[in-house]
Design goal:
By secondary structure, the chain is of the alpha/beta class. It is built from six helices and 16 strands. It has helices at about 50-55, 55-65, 70-80, 145-150, 170-180, 200-210, and strands spanning about 1-5, 10-15, 20, 45, 70, 85-90, 95, 100-105, 110, 115, 120-125, 130-135, 155-160, 180-185, 210-215, 220-224. The strands form three sheets. Strands 6-5-4-3-2-1-16 form a seven-stranded mixed beta sheet. A seven-stranded mixed beta sheet has the order 7-8-11-12-13-14-15. Strands 9-10 form a two-stranded antiparallel ribbon. Bound molecules: nickel (II) ion (NI) and manganese (II) ion.
Length: about 220
């Protein structure tokens, strides 16, 4: 599986046969080195409707025909903007051609242009190769992360920027609850308000758990 960190909270997961984009904020993303046209996803998953997550989702869906999969209100909004969209809700996993998607709670908010866009979510993606990937979206630390950890996570994308989300200390605590094999920190150093040192987060996590922290530069890919 190849993971590309597009920058901010935007990632591409490339499995054997599929490409899945999560929160594709590319146009206007100050750290992105990619263009939206670089991606040909089979599906676009969204954690919530804030513009730094919704990003280019509608345009990419229109260009490629890839469905946007998100919580009901956000999916309905994307549909009204001309995208193909599938609405689901927080709960059990839904099966798709590329794997399963489960929406989890997140402690945050979700709106766009004055529209209420449903609850903010995290996403658990299980690939056809049975790898479990958790993208926390924007969230504060919450104790039910323990339940998400019980799913047996291979990779977790966790925000560490503070201001809008967890800071490195809270995210390190989240790792204790989630127990993933690998953590990739996201949602930091995109704007001055969310400046953080990811190396401090890595040192903290790796001194208190078996979890490996992979720090990725925007535009970088890793094979895991
Ligand atoms: Ni947000
Ligand atoms: Mn955000």
């Amino acid at each position: 599986m190849q993971i590309t960190f597009i920058g901010h909270a935007a990632v591409e997961i490339k499995t054997e046969k599929h490409s899945i984009l999560i929160d594709p904020f590319i146009t206007g993303n100050p750290v992105a080195t990619h263009k939206p046209e670089d991606f040909h996803p089979d599906a676009i998953l969204l954690t919530h409707g804030h513009s730094d997550h919704l990003g280019d989702a509608v345009a990419i869906s229109q260009r490629t025909g890839a469905p946007i999969i998100a919580i009901f209100e956000l999916a309905t909004y994307c549909q009204s903007q001309g995208a193909k969209a599938i609405g689901m809700n927080i709960g059990g996993p839904s099966r798709f051609s590329f794997g399963t998607v489960q929406l989890t709670p997140a402690f945050h908010s979700s709106s766009h242009d004055g529209h209420y866009l449903g609850e903010p979510c995290g996403i658990v993606l299980t690939t056809l190769e049975n790898k479990k990937i958790y993208h926390a979206g924007d969230t504060a630390l919450f104790s039910d992360m323990t339940l998400i950890g019980k799913l047996g996570l291979d990779i977790a994308f966790l925000p560490i920027g503070s201001y809008y989300t967890m800071d490195p200390d809270a995210a390190a605590e989240a790792v204790q609850l989630l127990k993933p094999k690998i953590v990739i920190p996201i949602h930091y150093n995109t704007l001055p308000a969310i400046s953080q040192d990811p190396h401090r987060f890595k040192a903290m996590v790796e001194s208190q758990s078996k979890t490996q922290v992979i720090i990725m530069r925007p535009g970088e890919s890793v094979t895991v």
